[in-house]
Amino acid sequence: MKISSSIFPIISIFILLSISSVTPSDSDDSDDFDDFFQCLPKQSDSSIPITDAILTPNNSSFQYIYQLRANNLRTFLSATSRPVAIITARHPSHAQAAVICAKRHDFQLRIRSGGHDYEGLSYTSDVPFVILDMFNLNSIDIDMSTETAWVQAGATTGELYYRIAEKSNVHGFPSGVCTTLGIGGHFSGGGYGFLIRKYGLSIDNVIDAQLIDANGRILNRKSMGEDVFWAIRGGGTTSFGIILSWRIKLVRVPPRVTVFTVQRTLEQGATELAYRWQQVAPKLPKDLFIRLQPEPINNGGNNKTVRVSFIGHFLGQADGLLRLMNVSFPELGLTRNDCLQMSWVESTLYWAGFSNGSSIDVLLDRVAVNKVFAKEKSDYYKAVIPKQGLETLWQVLMDIENIFVQMNPYGGRMEEISDSETAFTHRAGNLFKVLYGIQWSESEGGVNATARYVELSRRLYNAMAPYASSNPREAFINYRDLDIGSNESDETDFEDAKEYGAKYFRNNFIRLADVKAKIDPKNFFKNEQSIPPLPSH
């Protein structure tokens, strides 16, 4: 569902009227603010003045920048307070100063790269806070002699794909489908895309990083140590520090790849095909990834059905794909006319939903245009959903209507990497990962509709409980979901954290908490689902 940009003036007025600023109300608080702002220039590089990067509610551009990279209107418009300032860092020292001064003057720091956190934790809080916006730190330095690149946190996935393509048509990188994701946060939760079965996650191809710790120091892999380097790859970096940049290893791709989308309705045998997909997709050769995406279709009145899309990506040409499919998944009936051949970078546009033939220049568009009210949840499946379970899913989809589901196959490279190799634990034993998403528009009631739609998302989640992973029911941290457990904005109770920590990280949670105790023992870096320091015994 897309929302017209014409609603944003209305939204801006609504925000200004309904969101209270945390501007100080007495002289003591005013002194705290003044001291904080005076601290910043003293702790940053004077050749690039940080004063030019500081926005407060008194700046005319404050509201625009605040909402520009706040991509979920549900969390944005339900926020009860605004940040006291936004620091739009233009130099690493600006980020260092933000840490030092926020810590010294008792302001919480929220770090935003692309603003795609599903629960808005990178730009909302219930206590006085500052947003450190990394968006301007977006350099990408590619070294083809070593097939590596340094990518700053504020760069987007689209920019990364574009810059790689400038250098080579036989290199790519395994990362997200959405092209406006900020690299800083996206990688730290794992980084998932259509190359997962061939090359694993983004973090499986990260070889170094620059991290600002709670003391404002810039650390690399060697100086942070292997435990911290392990934790920031899949553990969500904002519990441990601020990612300045990642060093990645590029991967090889053929000059031409093949993509396809085949759609079938329930009346065309979609249930049988979806059942078969579960058995086939995780076991296909690594070069082939097929996402299953069911969506409800209302043809008027009570004439409802579900249309299931099989969306594929093959690292090779169409003839080889057809031979493979005829052996492994002939039931789908893939034909040559279903197949599109293109370069790898063009396939990133296909997955992002751009029309065939679009210029790759759209990858340089850094901000999401069509913002929605949304609620997302995730699941991992370790066993095939029986046909009865699929029929339950179809019925709930038709009842709710404004909802989508993405089922992404595992297998391949993901089976080969230990669940303790990085902090990302969801590896072998999973058949597929699922995203449930429900979206609505401002015209449907906006904030007033939130409770109803959130409850509908929970209804679908509950309906699928008998078939999903259990004890714990696992979840993907990049599909953040406060329903699975949370803390208050300024508290990180260890017992509460264990609840969501087990779902996101399984047996890796305790090790993550131990790393946290070493690098940030006073728990400066925190949010509602952060990892607390492991209590001492």
Automatic annotation (TrEMBL):
**Keyword annotations:** Cell wall, Disulfide bond, FAD, Flavoprotein, Glycoprotein, Nucleotide-binding, Oxidoreductase, Secreted, Signal
**InterPro entries in the record, alphabetically?**
BBE (IPR012951), FAD-bd_PCMH (IPR016166), FAD-bd_PCMH-like_sf (IPR036318), FAD-bd_PCMH_sub1 (IPR016167), FAD-bd_PCMH_sub2 (IPR016169), Oxid_FAD_bind_N (IPR006094)
Q: Does this UniProt record's set of keywords contain Nucleotide-binding?
A: yes
Main localization of the protein described in the UniProt heading: secreted
Q: Where is the signal peptide?
A: 1-27
Keyword Metal-binding on this protein?
A: no
Please report which protein family the annotation says this sequence is part of. Answer: Belongs to the oxygen-dependent FAD-linked oxidoreductase family.
Query: What organism does the record attribute this protein to?
Result: Gossypium barbadense (Sea Island cotton)
Cofactor(s) demanded: FAD
What name does this protein carry? Answer: FAD-binding PCMH-type domain-containing protein
This entry's Gene Ontology molecular function terms read:
FAD binding; oxidoreductase activity
Give the subcellular location: Secreted, Cell wall
**Which residue ranges does the record assign to the FAD-binding PCMH-type domain?**
79-253
